[in-house]
């Protein structure tokens, strides 16, 4: 998979080149390109934003600059992803769906966002998804891109060690992952649940499912199927 990110704060994306993702790049599983939006500006101040039509607070990112950046970075077969608080929710299912894409391009907005015509124009030739990381507002899209890239690329075979761990992920079966334990058996007078020491794999699996259901009921009842 190739991933390109257009941003005015390239340094935010440095973590993509570190640790596991850095190893996946070395292994040829991933390619990253980070592009400074200002290389497509032409005024002496390298302006990327302007006042919003209709008034209101803040600034809006200029269509001309973004249009030329996406023309240069985003080919017709790529999926263009725009992190925005106004987007559709990013979920594990989104990460699964994106993980088989050949090329993702992320457009990192700042300020009050990007002129909508940038995405209306892009949609004439590429698939565009405006996606939210959650019901909160960041300063820019870069942090959202880091989270979305990690959630997506970890699902690509070979990027993380144990593929079995995906099956146990939270959300992979629609439920939250239950509690985990490791040695010692007793720690600060707290004991590991005896079933986990029983060696009975059927009982362990049943207990873990019950724990996932209980945790999901408690924390995310919205994830439970309708009765
Ligand atoms: N939750 C999110 N907040 C923001 C803010 C900006 Br500005 C751009 C993208 C996103 S995604």
From TrEMBL:
Give the EC number(s) under which this enzyme is classified. Answer: 2.1.1.228
Answer whether the UniProt record assigns the keyword tRNA processing to this protein: yes
Keywords, sorted A to Z:
Cytoplasm, Methyltransferase, S-adenosyl-L-methionine, Transferase, tRNA processing
Please, one GO biological process term? methylation
* UniProt subunit comment: Homodimer.
Residue stretches making up the tRNA methyltransferase TRMD/TRM10-type domain:
1-224
Region Disordered: which residues? 207-227
Give the matching InterPro entries: Alpha/beta_knot_MTases (IPR029028), tRNA_m1G_MeTrfase_C_sf (IPR023148), tRNA_m1G_MeTrfase_TrmD (IPR002649), tRNA_m1G_MTases_N (IPR029026), tRNA_MeTrfase_TRMD/TRM10 (IPR016009)
Localization of this protein: Cytoplasm
Name of the protein described by the UniProt record: tRNA (guanine-N(1)-)-methyltransferase
Function according to Swiss-Prot or TrEMBL: Specifically methylates guanosine-37 in various tRNAs.
Family to which this protein belongs: Belongs to the RNA methyltransferase TrmD family.
Recorded hits in CDD domains, A to Z, give: TrmD-like
Q: Where does S-adenosyl-L-methionine bind?
A: 109, 133-138
Is the Methyltransferase keyword given for this protein?
Answer: yes
**The organism's place on the tree of life at top rank:** Bacteria
Q: What is the lineage of its organism?
A: Bacteria, Bacillati, Actinomycetota, Actinomycetes, Mycobacteriales
Q: Name one GO molecular function term.
A: tRNA (guanine(37)-N1)-methyltransferase activity
Provide the reaction this enzyme catalyses: guanosine(37) in tRNA + S-adenosyl-L-methionine = N(1)-methylguanosine(37) in tRNA + S-adenosyl-L-homocysteine + H(+)
Originating species: Gordonia liuliyuniae
